[in-house]
């Protein structure tokens, strides 16, 4: 009987420790985010750019150089897009199309990336400060690492092509 009481007491002590242990999914996501940060990608949990977004979603950002802002555009998966939006490719639609046409190389790179991205990738967004992928982190760090070089190349293709170049032009200092 004493052994049973000791065993029960040990279970009471150990059980909270087991609850604190991260799940396999949490461990995978931590490794994924660490690899992303080591690759120069900023990871944040924010409200996605959906019309009726509720809650937060992981956003992986590749920043543009400060002196070379990027264009404004938003590509959304068909599942989250209205039929009225202009189709792009492979089940993606323009929610916001860039004002200035993108280069053929940049369009081809976007098309290639969208084809390879997992189904939980919902939005590819570019703002003057960063290129952002909104997704639910379904893949592991090794698979994500295969996208990093392509996203870096896309960011480099888009850098310095803002929709409103006059807003981002270096300002002349006033003469004394």
DSSP summary, beta strand count: 7
Unreliable parts:
none
Residue-averaged pLDDT: 88
Q: Could you give a short account of the major beta sheet?
A: 7 strands, antiparallel
Share in helix = 25-40%
Rg to the nearest angstrom? 22 Å
Strand arrangement, major sheet = 1-2-7-6-3-5-4
C-alpha termini separation: 93 Å
Please provide the ordered H/E string of secondary-structure elements. HHEEEEEHEEHH
Query: What's the shape?
Result: elongated
Structural class: alpha+beta
- Strand-residue proportion: 15-25%
| Number of helical elements | 5
Molecular structure report:
The protein is an alpha+beta fold and 176 residues long. Helix content is 39%, strand content 22%. The protein has a domain of 107 residues. The model has no long low-confidence stretch (mean pLDDT 88).
Which descriptors apply to this entry?
about 180 residues, 5 helices, about 40% helix, about 20% strand, elongated
Outline:
This protein is α+β, with helices and mostly antiparallel strands and 176 residues long.
